[in-house]
Write a structure and sequence with these properties.
By secondary structure, the protein is of the alpha+beta class. Helices cover 30% and strands 31% of the residues. It has a single domain, classed as Gcn5-related N-acetyltransferase (GNAT) (Aminopeptidase), CATH 3.40.630.30. A hairpin with a 5-residue loop joins β7 and β8 (170-179).
């Protein structure tokens, strides 16, 4: 599914975010195998054999109006290189989370994440009229924590013993957010990074 036949796409110079569908399963299975992302113990990334169920669950959330899941396409290569999601959308409180983000190893540190976050945040604040956008990650996922801070998000706190992961380990979750009054500055910062080819 491409943007030419789906008006729900979010498009930038380097990346296209396509509304997730079962047609993306095969490409996502290939993308996740690049770097064997599921082997990082502090992440919750599906193995290739789990991808269909992973996508199906995301679509169920979308049908309930709780999320907006996307497949991430590298505009230069044309390849699907990962996925991301606006989730836990609470329209009555104008609050949501950006999460479930992962990229093939070849797409990491390329600017794809920077532009993806700019597209998602623009959609959140300027289309959904959110007043707060949250990011959550594992305490031990230092790369993710640093990337979230470079976005311009501020740390709200740490939820201790917040999740039991599939390997049985217990996750402390670090919570960050960007609020509506900060969006203009954050947006300018992300646009500057893209012009300077400084990645997140």
């Amino acid at each position: 599914m491409g943007c030419e036949d789906n008006l729900g796409c979010l498009s930038g110079e380097h990346v296209v975010l396509e509304p997730l569908s079962l047609s993306h399963v095969a490409a996502l299975s290939l993308a996740v195998a690049d770097g064997e992302l599921w082997r990082l113990w502090y992440t919750s990334v599906p193995e290739p054999c789990e991808m269909k169920a992973y996508v199906a669950q995301a679509l169920e959330e979308s049908q309930r109006g709780e999320s907006f899941p996307f497949a991430v396409r590298d505009r230069i290569s044309g390849q699907i290189v990962g996925c991301t999601r606006i989730c836990h959308w609470e329209s009555e409180h104008r609050h949501l989370e950006i999460g479930y983000t992962w990229y093939a190893k070849r797409a990491q540190r390329t600017g794809i994440n920077t532009e993806s976050k700019l597209l998602l945040l623009t959609f959140a604040f300027e289309t959904l009229d959110a007043i707060a956008v949250e990011f959550r990650t594992h305490w031990h996922n230092q790369a993710s924590r640093q990337a979230i801070v470079r976005l311009g998000a501020k740390q709200d706190g740490v939820l201790r013993n917040n999740r039991i992961l599939k390997d049985g380990t217990i996750r402390d979750t670090v919570v960050y957010s960007i609020i509506d009054t900060e969006w203009s500055t954050v947006k300018s910062g992300l646009q500057f990074r893209l012009r300077q080819r400084s990645v997140i």
